[in-house]
Request: fold
Amino acid sequence: MSFSAPAAVKPEPAVTSDSAAPRRVGRALDDLSLGFRRWRLPVALAQLDIRNRYRGSVLGPMWLTLSTAVTFLALGFLYSTLFKMNLQEYLPFLVVSLILWNVFSQVISEACTSLTSAEGIIRQVPLPFTVHALRCLMRNAVIAAHNLPLILVVFVIFGINPGLVALLAIPGMLLFVLNAFALVMFLGMLCARFRDIGPIVNTVTQLAFFISPVIWKPELLQERQVWLVLNPAFDLMEVVRGPLLGQSPGLMIWAAAMLITAVVCGLSFAFFVRFRGRIAFWV
Reply:
């Protein structure tokens, strides 16, 4: 009886560790890519949030539309009288401004808890963190969609036709959404690490409301309105509001809005690349 020599056993490949050179940028890009490819999941979660918020309500989200319409009428008549403005010119400006500002402020407010509120999911389910940011953004987009018809109603009542210049609101809205998403990512991580940041952000947002032309028109500043370009909230609102009202924003406003977008997105991505691996421990 002959015995054959045992087959040579191939050595197992060495397990490589990336602790010395972590693929932070690659993992961050993979998180963003996978999160956007799974866009149906944040949409479903956003719809679930809205249903839970208005559970047991007869009109549901329509309560928000009705309360917003009443607010517009009350503020429109009041401030048009205080500022001595024609209601036909002031009310459309107020409606567009408040709808944009409500979306902006609500996104910032919920961005502070976008990750901490999903603590259970983050600790148990290996989902991209981008999903939680998109969930916050889409939830507010759906709520804003209930108020958008108010703009059309006011425009029809007062006979406002912005014309083809309204198409400029599309790139303006893109800049608006990019900044909103970047802020949700950045503030979500920052507030998960430092819980005191949330109240500070809400205070700053409240202050920004009064120093930004939301309920007052930029023309009231007269020759000083040129300094409004230094207000990021004004730039991001004006590239959407101006075209909707039939006014083309100046090149300085467009340049400022694009510069703000680049800075906010760059800062958010750099923070996400550096601290993405610690989010699960922060929440």
User: Anything to note?
Assistant: The chain is about 65% helix and 0% strand. The two ends are 67 Å apart (CA to CA). Residues 26-33+40-51+59-277 form one domain.
